[in-house]
Amino acid sequence: MTDTEVEEIKLLPCEPGKLTTADLKTLFLFEKLTDEQLTWIAEHGCTMHAPAGSLVLREGDPADQFFILLTGTIALTRRIGQDDVQTTRTEQRGVYMGATQAYIRDEGVERKYMASMRALDDADFFMMSAADFGQMMRDWFPMAIHLLEGLALGMRSTQAAISERQRLTALGALSAGLMHELNNPAAAASRATSALRQRVAGMRHKLGMLAAGKVPPERLVALVELQEEVIERAAKAPVLTAMQTADREDELGDWMDDHKVTGGWDIAPVFAQGGIDVDCLEEIAAKVETAGLLDQAIHWIGYALETEQLMSDVEDATSRVSNLVNAAKQYSQMDRAAHQWIDVHSGLDSTLVMLGHKIGQGVKVVKDYDRTLPQIPSHPAELNQVWTNIIDNAVQAMTGAGTLTVKTYRKDDYVVVSIGDTGPGIPEALRKRVFEPFFTTKPVGEGTGLGLDISYRIVTNGHGGDIIVESQPGDTRFLVKLPITEPSSR
């Protein structure tokens, strides 16, 4: 059967009045009911036979029937991506499924089957319509229904309130982190601009002194050309280690002392950072020393070098601000369609940028991306929420020190995103519960227990994928599987 074909449900006709009140009393759901109640059920229900292998009900169809298994074996499955994942297999007489919540007032919201049911061998069921079953429950057990409705409504309201609170808390944390990240380059740009103003003023002053020194025109032209050569050399200079830079500063400082350059030890670090060596200073000296202007020339070129370095600092700082803003736009998917085909790496990168402040200096981030992966259909803003929840949990597990590994690869028809940490791990007993709503191992007030539950529902329900957790001390990995093709609409 192809993905576009839908299996037809073929069941034998229902037979009213097949079960007696005595038969109904053998089912654990009805064992405490009165004869009058059992008679009503027998009159409003019927029996149905399902041949082996037949589909009894389909996930997503309107939940209009309540089923009780009489004989045979059935299996319940959930559709995840292109696969049907079996959740329950049973042959227990009396188990029930289908419109199990028909008694809850839905205020016009259509209820659907949450799973598909298939008869693995010949099976017989007792059936009631959702309307009859719901009415029976409300009439016979009003207090119980009020309690159940209150419980269901309370859980939905609680979950909605906590989810909203969690989103606001996450937004506040991300905003604080983004402001912190933006403040650093903005402050750096401000400091560099202030220093740049002073250096430009100094250059004007030194240029005036050079001009007043009656320098022959050809010497001044040569000095200007040398300044351009020095700046070009600085732009191409290799990056020195801290030790190499210190040695270079010593050499330059000694040379300037020998040549009576005032404040040489203050200028030497600028020349060293610009990749200037003693040979370059000798070239400068050869051009101006005869005119007795070496001191002014060294300071002038020093100002030019520092001006270039400060302009590079401003450029780097403003680029950092621009990159952060772009990352924030990418993360929030502002001005983008809700559903689109994406490169999964863009969302991962923007999330890492947004969480940079929370990740901190003690956590090493390792990216192992397969850049050949195809684009996938997704709701990118929702996926970014998944990456945020998993990465945030991983960082908290490592308590400020460890390695966060983000890896992508292809497995069959899925793109897999693996997010791993070197924290203490998740015990096996808790591993099965990490995706349960309201379950958390964090101290009171530090977690709602909804982050992974929300992530699981986004991936499985919204994208037709799956999340798997693998954990042992020092190596915990959340594997997010996302289909490469559009999930089936079944």
TrEMBL record:
Residue span, Histidine kinase domain: 306-486
CDD domains xref list: CAP_ED
Keyword Kinase: yes
UniProt keyword annotation of Kinase present: yes
Catalytic activity: ATP + protein L-histidine = ADP + protein N-phospho-L-histidine
GO biological process assignments: phosphorelay signal transduction system
Gene3D superfamilies for the chain: 1.10.287.130, Histidine kinase-like ATPase, C-terminal domain, Jelly Rolls
Positions of the Cyclic nucleotide-binding domain: 29-137
Pfam families: cNMP_binding, HATPase_c
EC number(s) per entry: 2.7.13.3
Xref: InterPro entries: cNMP-bd_dom, cNMP-bd_dom_sf, HATPase_C_sf, HATPase_dom, His_kinase_dom, RmlC-like_jellyroll, Sig_transdc_His_kin-like_C
Molecular function GO terms recorded: protein histidine kinase activity
UniProt keywords, alphabetically: Kinase, Transferase, Two-component regulatory system
UniProt name for this protein: histidine kinase
Source species of the chain: Winogradskya consettensis
